[in-house]
Amino acid sequence: MDDTLAQNQRLKAAIHFTTGQICQTIAADCGSEFSRQTIAAIAETTYRQCDIFAKDLESFARHAKRSTINVDDVKLVSRRSTALSTYIQQKSEELASAHQEQKEKRKKSSAKRKHQETEDNED
Amino acid sequence: MADQVEIEFKKETISKLLAKSFKDSKTKVSGDAVILMCEILKVFVEEASRRAIKQATAEDSEQVDVEHFEKVLPQLLLDF
User: Fold this and answer.
1) What is the pTM of this model?
2) Is the ipTM reported for this complex over the cut 0.85?
3) For chain A, what is the domain count?
């Protein structure tokens, strides 16, 4: 099971890296500075919190008799904080409208292509 | 010049991280759900950082140390 250990290390390192970037950006904004141990502590907490989120998400999906976790499950996970759930609701609406736009673009371009083909055939 | 490079968790990282904790091997996550989870985790880190900075400032400390983070950790976890 050496592979799992290596993968865990890589995931932790990835979380640590991005956490550090976020912390340092905010600290710079506030004119403050984080000690390395503090960033490590925040990264570790985030890593563990993700485990809790994952188990909750899985339970929510299973409760809805699904095996794929979707956006509704994520909205539930954000329910404790009004500000957070409003933010996630907004983001999910942005994603949904982006999908809709893509759909319509594809419809338009496939309709154009069909028109072209029939024109070419008539030649 | 606006330095607005968005720092985000990578979708692949979060997707793998979530998958590690699932009890059922058949459980999967939709693409949009992964994107939203990246947002939630980013907010989590931002919130942790800001609260720790506030604590450090309240204690007249220039640097944010682990003790400052430890003091804000319980409330942070309850709020999430």
Assistant:
1) 0.90
2) yes
3) 2
